[in-house]
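This part of the workshop introduces the protein records we will be handling. The structure tokens are whole numbers drawn from a learned vocabulary of backbone shapes. The record below serves as our worked example for the rest of this section.

===
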Amino acid sequence: MMIAIIAALGLFAWLYLLAARGGFWRAAERDDEEIVSVSWWPRVIAIIPARDEAQTIAESVGSLLAQDYPGDLSVIVVDDHSSDDTAAIAREIGARDGSDRVTVLRAPDLATGWTGKLWALEQGVRHANALPIAPEYLLFTDADIAHARDSLRMLVASAHRDGLGLSSRMAKLNAQSAGERAMIPAFVFFFQMLYPFAWVNDRRRATAAGAGGCMLVHRQTLNQAGGLAAIRGELIDDCALARLLKPLRPIRIALTDRVRSLRAYPGFADIRRMIVRTAFTELEFSPWRLAAATAAMIVVFVAPPVLALAPVGTLARVLGGAAWLLMALAYQPMLRFYRLSPAWGLALPAIAAIYVALTIESAILHWRGRGGEWKGRVRPRTAVAHSRKGMTTSFDAKRQ
């Protein structure tokens, strides 16, 4: 009887996800609309925080300098204490451009209570705010992101038309290696399940999320919200920024082919490090949330195929098989977006099980004081506590 109940819960969960979760599985929120005509093109400054990004910084900066944007565009690269030639390469790309559009700053020593990326971005924001003619928009983009020539024009046109405080694009991640094909589309699928893009883009809903590789921010709205200092301790800074800005102006997030990641994950170990860095952060470092999320993932993703194939009662096998089929069908739009075989839909339960294991590992690393490790930096547990306290202070007045 208990097995049949678990099977029924899994099927009910997929019926809910397909019918009432913002249509996340359709992957329909894209940036493939036509570029609208605007009367003027505002000034934009792109800010790139960079730490040991010598392999990708040239292509990243070069893609911004090659934009067909009709307005004034400049780039600030904030060198976050790189041990390689990141800063020198960025300066060389700027010199090749034959203009003064590229500025390279060196971030001061990391201030207490700040995460490294946000501290680097803050230096670029301060520089932009101090200019005689400050920009209307800031483009927060990563040093491993490349932009198509019309990427910025699309972002600014839609942001200007709809009065957006934040317009972000989920960069197209690499899905070439076997590990990438297995894990990367699922990563985006799970992200959309947590934050349905249609709900994020609906101002009437509280759901807020951003994609940190490409975020066009309305500068005055950011300053009105208290600046990056309001989220200074956040590890998942893109979603924190979205939550900060949404009460003040509409925000938008979409999938795109115009913004792509230059970072490859050739082995499973590379993907593992990416996931364990922030998985437990998403659960707000709560063991109770971890237990609940683990149980939910097992019932919704893992149990259906197990019950469908196990020698259990007919009812449980039918219910489990139906849930597995719905799961595989729901995954198809994301697989088409990444141009992968539909057969990966049948493997989603196994992929989900791996994500559960990595989330548990993320929690263990946090409890051992090694959580959030990135390029030699480890986020202290005391910073987590201060960050959560600060988030409550910053958001309560705006969101509740």
